[in-house]
């Protein structure tokens, strides 16, 4: 022990400090293990997402048709979008569909979540049942709904003029069938979000309000809804963003028809960009659509979070 102490004392202080600094330098140069796990994902994301986006934005300033040569056309594609009646109609349909579907999804989902959060028999079983639509392939279910709307519904509701014929061929009302399918599937995920929020509310609040004589509606308006405001914001933002990009339900039910009555922006971009020889033009449309969705989502967050603060 004395020998070790003498050896330590005999070591110059500068030598000790230099060894310590060298050790820190060597350890700082060695990358942590999680860097080696993250970098492959970053590279893959850049290669398959960021790079294609940049290339697409570049081609949106050209007249590239998806094949052959191309030339720069500047902002012509973007300017022509605002003069294209088919594009404007697709945006109008997408927003109408998204607003109606978002309202219905959140109303139905919140109502079902309140029921599933109550003390009912086989509560976990029913929660699983209502989540099933989310894990089903939307195209497969879409073809089932197509058969229902085109064959079963006209026979069941033959006495109602609107449903006497195939509603999917009705230019005025075909979009309502798409809303029914989209809302039916979207409710599954929204219910889970609302259930998560409802379970964060202390039961003591309801007990205290009951002692004060508050009705069920009063409890919902003053306790439940304000306390799940953040979950409501998430559901509304995600619902509207997802419904604006609606594609699969339309392909399964109407394929954009009759005519172009149910053609959404995403379906128009897909058709024109990949099979219509409008690659650059529809790429410009996609850029505009991305900006629109981003702005709408940010406005939603700003308005809804302000409402949360007011509560």
Give a short synopsis of this structure:
This protein is mostly helical and 311 residues long.
Explain what the structure shows.
The protein has 311 residues and is mainly alpha-helical. It contains 15 helices and no strands. The longest helix is centred in the N-terminal third of the chain and has 33 residues. The protein is globular. The N terminus is likely disordered.
Describe this protein with a few key phrases.
311 residues; mainly alpha; 15 helices; disordered N terminus
Helical content class: over 70%
The biggest beta sheet is recorded as: none
Give the strand tally: 0
Helical stretch tally: 15
Q: Strand-and-helix sequence, N→C?
A: HHHHHHHHHHHHHHH
Task: Catalogue the unreliable spans.
Answer: 1-5
Based on helices, strands and strand pairing, what is the structural class? mainly alpha
How widely separated are the two ends? 69 Å
Question: What characteristic shape results from the CA principal axes?
Answer: globular
Residue share in β-strands: under 5%
**Cα radius of gyration in angstroms:** 29 Å
Mean pLDDT: 87
């Amino acid at each position: 022990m004395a020998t070790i102490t003498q050896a330590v004392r005999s070591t110059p202080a500068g030598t000790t400090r230099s060894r310590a600094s060298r050790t820190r330098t060597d350890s700082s140069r060695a990358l942590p293990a999680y860097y080696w796990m993250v970098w492959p994902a970053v590279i893959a994301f850049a290669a398959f997402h960021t790079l294609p986006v940049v290339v697409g934005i570049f081609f949106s300033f050209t007249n590239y048709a998806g094949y052959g040569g191309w030339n720069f056309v500047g902002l012509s594609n973007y300017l022509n979008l605002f003069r294209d009646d088919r594009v404007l109609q697709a945006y109008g349909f997408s927003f109408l569909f998204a607003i109606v579907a978002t309202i219905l999804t959140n109303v139905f989902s919140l109502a079902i979540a309140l029921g599933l959060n109550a003390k009912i028999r086989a509560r976990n079983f029913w929660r699983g049942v209502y989540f099933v639509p989310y894990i089903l392939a939307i195209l497969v279910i879409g073809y089932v709904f197509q058969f229902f709307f085109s064959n079963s519904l006209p026979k069941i509701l033959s006495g109602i003029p609107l449903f006497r014929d195939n509603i999917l061929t009705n230019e005025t009302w075909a979009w309502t069938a798409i809303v029914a399918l989209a809302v039916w599937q979207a409710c599954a995920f929204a219910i889970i979000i609302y259930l998560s929020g409802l379970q964060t509310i202390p039961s003591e609040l309801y007990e205290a309000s009951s002692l004060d004589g508050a009705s069920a509606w009063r409890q919902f308006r003053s306790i439940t809804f304000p306390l799940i405001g953040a979950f409501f914001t998430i559901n509304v933002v995600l619902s509207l963003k997802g419904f604006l990009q609606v594609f699969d339900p339309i392909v399964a039910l109407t394929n954009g028809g009759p005519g172009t009555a149910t053609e959404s922006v995403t379906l128009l971009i897909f058709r024109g960009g990949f099979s219509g020889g409008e690659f650059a033009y529809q790429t410009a449309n996609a850029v505009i659509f991305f900006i629109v969705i981003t702005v709408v989502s940010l406005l939603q967050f700003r308005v809804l979070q302000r409402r949360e603060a007011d509560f």
